[in-house]
Amino acid sequence: MLTIVDEVTYSAQPEEDNHGCVYEMDLVGLSVFSEYDHCKDERHLKPEVQKLFEKYVNNDLHVRRLDHEMALQLLQKEFSLSQKAAVSVMDYFDTDRNGSLSLWEFQHFYNLAGPRVAETAAVFDSKDTEKQGYLDRDTVIDILKDMKSADGKELEDKDIEMIIKSAKDENQIFLGDFIAILYRVKLYRKGH
């Protein structure tokens, strides 16, 4: 079950509860979390996220960050992204701009795109006909006009405008923003 908590930026440090579940609030944008097995609080770190992340920490399980090279390897190998797509995703989800990917930044990526990121990147690449590395506003609007909201209704122009404005630059939409936009459409319910 996905829940939007709010649109506030949090900087809470990760904590561990008495069940051994690690949790934290999302560091940027929409605070979105999923419930998982024994981790009933919506802020818990999903075990599959931690397991994937730990495959790339070079035997130091206390490390909560992957350097740029290891993060790109994770994105390419585990999610079948091209080098170019992995760099774009890394750029978007490295929210503190330190050149590494924290466990919490990775969880944010996984919640938004995760296993479907290769499909999203393929759509993005197919629409980027001039191979600029970004989509223009009109192209994204055309894509959104073919989509439906979470409650199955067609998006109106005002809905699309609101969703487009969530991008860092609404005239040049890079893969990371495109992922976030598609996720917002998935959660968007008209009249809410």
Automatic annotation (TrEMBL):
Residues 81-116 form the EF-hand domain. Gene3D superfamilies: EF-hand. InterPro entries: EF-hand-dom_pair (IPR011992), EF_Hand_1_Ca_BS (IPR018247), EF_hand_dom (IPR002048). It comes from the Eukaryota. GO terms for molecular function: calcium ion binding. Keywords: Calcium. PROSITE patterns: EF_HAND_1, EF_HAND_2. This is EF-hand domain-containing protein. It comes from Paralvinella palmiformis.
